[in-house]
Target: Cellulose synthase operon protein YhjQ
Amino acid sequence: MPLLCLASPKGGVGKTSLASGLAHALHRTGRPVFAIDCDPQNALRLHLGLPITDPEGYLARLHLRPDWRACLRRTPAGPDLLPYGETDMRGALATSGLIEREPELLAGPVRAMLADPSAIVVVDTPPGASAALQILAPQAALVLAVLLADAASTALLPEIETGRFLGRGTLGTLVGPKLRVVLNQVDRHSRLSVSAAEGVAAHLGARLAGAISREEAVAEALACQRPVGAHAPYSTAARDIEDLAATVLREMPVAAPAPVAPAVTSSLFPWSRP
Model:
């Protein structure tokens, strides 16, 4: 099943930036790509170019049983997005509880999106253990755990390898074979960052799916509400994400996309391709 979940044992690791970059890079291969924001921060929409003033979404309104298709947004970056929606802490907790009680409210839309065997669904999950991750991870083709390339990453490796960051129970055992790690924000000018990245890479071996360079272009891309691959396609970070997307496609059973007619290059994203 071509379902890709992005997770992290803690926040602040650039998981949402990576989710948007991967969704954009996978979309550029010609495949239908759906992105789902399961993080109450509701930030994935900003990375993909939706207006900051648009508060609508799916999970934030889950108690109203909305039609997920009516909540789907076509983004300027290309992928279709199911935003989380605007909420507060109380609303986020209520949504999490509702998903636990009625998992089909989340699993159903994902299953419908995957009815097209060439489609890829990219899910940005909240940091740490979450109801969304527990529901979707067992069905995912890959789970990418995002870590920073710093000294703290070494301390988090046991959480990753044992699956403890996924929560209690058997989820870690179920997900283990399809769990991969991505090192984010590798600072090539920092000896400590490079050493930490090299140490983690040596320890993980084939379980390391990729490493993404730390660059100002990534922050600039968010400020412009674009994935870095659209904002700065020739940057090292953009190329790193393209390499990661290629790895994802090799490891996930994705059908070849149907032929499409050439699209006119967008003036908003002059470097984008269908």
The longest helix spans residues 236-251. The domain at 3-251 is CATH 3.40.50.300 (Rossmann fold). Residues 260-274 have pLDDT under 50 and may be disordered. The CA atoms of residues 104 and 135 lie 9 Å apart.
